[in-house]
Specification:
Blueprint lengths: L1 H21 L8 E5 L2 E4 L3 E4 L2 E3 L2 E5 L3 E6 L5 E6 L8 H5 L2 H10 L4 E2 L6 E2 L5 E4 L4 E6 L6 E5 L7 E7 L1
Parallel strand pairs: 1-6, 5-13, 9-11
Antiparallel strand pairs: 1-4, 2-3, 6-11, 7-10, 7-12, 8-10, 12-13
The structure holds copper (II) ion.
Copper (II) ion (CU) binds next to loops.
Length: 164
């Protein structure tokens, strides 16, 4: 019985530590939510209001952004060049940069071509699970404007302004 209690309290301690890491607070200005709904009506309509909210954040270099997925679809935060962002329905359905991102991701939950553990260059990608929370470090230097899309729903397009 004593042994069981010891094991249980160890488990509780591990859970508590894990929870405090996962839920350590970031400033509210560093939180980006994935929101919206989708509608499909055969031979009639396809509609999505999936979006990043807010669309633009300004955060210091080295800080973490917290992506909060409020819907049951996965998303990615994928850094792209400004000009690689789809600008029309046709470009959304033929999103070439999205296919490049998926090829690199290849089943993993992130792709970090620079290997610096954060967001600083095109193709940097982190997956955000359905109703999940994902923290990602912003490693780009102050003065950088990072453009990002969701490679699954590439009309979801946001901006991270990086400050000192
Ligand atoms: Cu998405």
């Amino acid at each position: 019985m004593k042994g069981k209690i010891a094991i249980l309290s160890t488990v509780a301690a591990v859970v508590a530590v894990t929870t405090s890491i996962a839920f350590a607070t970031v400033p509210s200005g560093n939180i980006i939510r994935a929101e919206g709904t989708e509608n499909f009506d055969r031979d009639a309509l396809i509609q999505s209001t999936f979006r990043w909210s807010p669309e633009s954040v300004t955060v210091p270099t080295g800080s973490f952004i917290q992506l909060e997925n409020k819907v049951g679809d996965p998303h990615t935060i994928s850094i792209v060049e400004r000009t690689q962002r789809p600008n029309s329905v046709a470009e959304v359905f033929a999103c070439r940069i999205c296919n490049t991102i998926f090829a690199h991701l290849d089943g993993n939950n992130h792709y970090d071509p620079g290997g610096d553990g954060g967001l600083n260059q095109p193709l940097d990608t982190w997956v955000v699970n359905p109703f999940g929370v994902q923290k990602v470090k912003v490693t780009a230097p102050a003065g950088t404007t990072l453009f990002y899309i969701c490679a699954i729903h590439p009309w979801m397009q946001g901006i991270i302004n990086v400050t000192s």
